[in-house]
Amino acid sequence: MPEKQEIQKTISESNKEGSKEEFYSLLRLVSPGTNLRKALSGIVSSGKGALIVIEKPALYRLIDGGFKVNCPFSYQRLIELSKMDGAIILSSNLKRIIYANVLLTPNSKIKTMETGTRHKAAERTAKQISGVVIAISERKKEIVLFYKNKRYKLRETSEIVSKVNEHIQVLEKQRELFDSYLETLNKIELKNYINLNHAIKTIQKGKVIQKISEELSKYLIELGAEGDLLKTRLREILFDVERETNLIIKDYSNIDYKTAIEILDGLSYEKLLDKDRILRILNYENPREIVSIAGWRLLSKTTLTEPEIAELIKEMENFERIIHSDIEQEFASLPKEKSPLLKVELEKLKLGI
User: Fold this and answer.
1) Domain residue extents for the chain
2) By CB count within 10 A, which of 141, 164, 276, 340 is most buried?
3) pTM for the predicted model, two decimal places
4) What is the CATH topology of the domain spanning 158-183+196-281?
């Protein structure tokens, strides 16, 4: 399957760049309020440039000259040492300044898109040691974080807040549409008017919301404590989106639903909006195909536990038989008291209660 190859390629590329969690951890280290960020901002304010490397064993093969400092880290010391031309080496736990005024000598054959000498050395070193290098441009007054194959420019707090507010507004609108699609999906599933097109549209909206939120998460982490209120708002917007979306995929996928989720999570915005592609990932040929769903998503809104839902689906085979069963009928797979309760709960779902 071509989409499966795409997800494997995405995973391979992400290994070169480091995991999302690793990169988010780095952003936390340089978020506003941290001592390292104070030092970086101080260097920019003083009109100086700098090259700062976080220690790794592989680094020592690439350094020449300089002098050993080996003193406790403080942002004032780091600002003072940046007045010299060479690189500064920090300990891996950021508690000590190890060397200063060091010449970095990474392999010149390593590809780089940078133009300045300092930034070329930073990118090549980060790639060669699979580590972290921070370059500060004296002329542009920019702070650029290099990590493995990844490049990320740190932004001013005011710029980040502006970006976050833009994303929040987009997410709020997308969430309204997602909720509207879900409400329609509830109605048609409870009436057994299964519509594959509408399910795909809802999946697309849910996955787009998740993708936007991932981009927003980077900004919020970079804001540090200053983004706490915005983080709370984001959690409210995202509440249950991933769970609902993945349960729709579980109900409608014609292949292992975990595989389908993995492939969908690896798609770009453009590919997510391609309805035919989503159709193929779910392993359908025609959007008008007759679909019978298990009912995982709606049954999860009742008091049934996940094992009980699994047993009920195994007994009844599909959601149509469950919702059309007689009110007096007891389900053999459920405890005796739960059959009538389930019927009441499903009726309440039909009424939107």
Assistant:
1) 16-154, 158-183+196-281, 296-351
2) 164
3) 0.76
4) Ferritin (1.20.1260)
Beta strand residue intervals within 82-184, DSSP E: 87-90, 96-104, 132-136, 143-147, 150-154
Cβ neighbours around 108 below 10 Å, total: 9
Q: Which of 100, 98, 97, 121 is nearest to 110 (CA)?
A: 121
> How confident is the model at residue 327, as a pLDDT?
62
Are the C-beta atoms of 17 and 56 separated by less than 8 Å? no
Evaluate whether 216 touches 167 at the Cβ level (below 8 Å): yes
Q: Is 96 left (phi over 0), alpha (psi -120 to 50) or beta?
A: beta
User: What does the pLDDT look like over 2-46, one tens digit per residue?
Assistant: 455 544 444 444 445 567 788 888 888 888 888 999 999 999 999
- Classify the C-alpha dihedral 305-310-312-317 as positive or negative: positive
CA distance 304 to 142: 55
- If pLDDT is split at 50, 70 and 90, which confidence band does 331 have? confident
Domain 16-154, what fold?
Answer: YojJ-like (1 (3.40.1700)
The distance of Cα 327 from the centroid of its chain, to the nearest Å, equals: 44
